[in-house]
Amino acid sequence: MTYIIADCGGTHCGDPELAHRLVEMATMPIFHRGVRLKGIDAVKFTVRDLANEMSNKMASASYKIKHSFGDTYGEHRLHMELGKDTLLALKAQSFKRGAEFILTLCSPTLVKTYAPVADKLKVASRDLTNIPLIMALAKTDKHIILSTGMADDGESLEEAIKAIERERGIHGNLSVLHCISQYPAEYDVVNLWRIHDYRTSYGYPVGYSDHTTGVLAPSIAVAMGAKIIEKHITLDHEMRGTDHAGALDMDGIRRCIRDIRNTEKMIAMSSVADVKDATRLAREKLGRSLAWARSLKAGATIKPNHLTMVSPGNGLSWADRIKVIGMSLKGDVIRNDIIQLGELNG
């Protein structure tokens, strides 16, 4: 089944209480037509080492905008960080509620401390060229998920994969996510065909990290072969901060999971027997059977123009007309009655 990740990285607004509420919302039971569906598989948070995150100029740049939590960009980013104790508590909550815990680590300096906390590790799109980070992650035993939203013509993704393979060997514990780093992403730039390209080019499981609004793109991605879906979630689209616009609220989560799980059913391989069983009743009721095109008297010889096809479909087929033509009737028959072989002499 598709592995679904709820990305909480930018929507907790730096508030541990909101982070716990996001985990609770992400792991709520999802029902469709009275049946409980397999819900979200993992929640994801992001950890930055701000001392090694950005230049002094970028950190001190004015950031007095609608969604800022500080006067400078550095102050904003500092506000958004969650401490290790909070992350450990979030992992415990996730585990208790049946979800894995994924961390996006943004610096090699974080790997020793935080990799043991995570079930899987994510490389953000902007760090696809951060080979020191990728090499440090590759030295762990954790599954690595590479996001490609800022990949160039493919060279940066190939370089990242090769760095992991040098450490772990070919076909290491790795997945690749197609992604468009636009927030929210417009439909005409999403290019879901990249899922197919990555599947055929690299041989690793491929998924899709979605930044569009709504729930359409993830289910289409699953139909195109995505094995992982990542989507931001939010408690309120109107909250101050980043990533809320393209995120899912509780109703969006329910609809997204419903559509993904139903898509999985629709693209699953079915045997001929399964199809026949599913359509049997409709075929019997609405299908066509050989019938009399006109009323005829006993002794009449059956000709092609005496035959028609009417419902239900539980009688002779059109191919069976060769069994009927040229035979004679034992008794009278009435127009539109289904033909029975016992009515014929022969």
Structure in words:
The structure is a single chain. The chain has helices spanning 16-26, 56-60, 73-79, 84-96, 111-114, 131-138, 155-168, 193-202, 216-223, 250-267, 272-286; strands at 3-7, 30-32, 35-37, 42-47, 100-105, 120-123, 143-147, 174-179, 206-210, 228-232, 289-292, 307-310, 328-329, 344-345. It has 346 residues and is α/β, with parallel strands linked by helices. It has two domains: 3-267, Aldolase class I (TIM Barrel, Alpha-Beta Barrel), CATH 3.20.20; 272-345, Antifreeze-like/N-acetylneuraminic acid synthase C-terminal domain (Type Iii Antifreeze Protein Isoform Hplc 12). The strands form four sheets. Strands 1-4-5-6-7-8-9-10 form an eight-stranded parallel barrel, surrounded by five helices. A hairpin with a 2-residue loop joins strand 2 (30-32) and strand 3 (35-37). The radius of gyration is 30 Å and the shape is elongated. The model has no long low-confidence stretch (mean pLDDT 93).
Structure at a glance:
With 346 residues, the chain is of the alpha/beta class.
What is the CATH C level class of the largest domain, in words? Alpha Beta
Low-confidence segments: none
Structural class by helix and strand composition = alpha/beta
Total helical elements: 11
CATH superfamily of the largest domain: Aldolase class I
Strand content: 15-25%
Coarse morphology: elongated
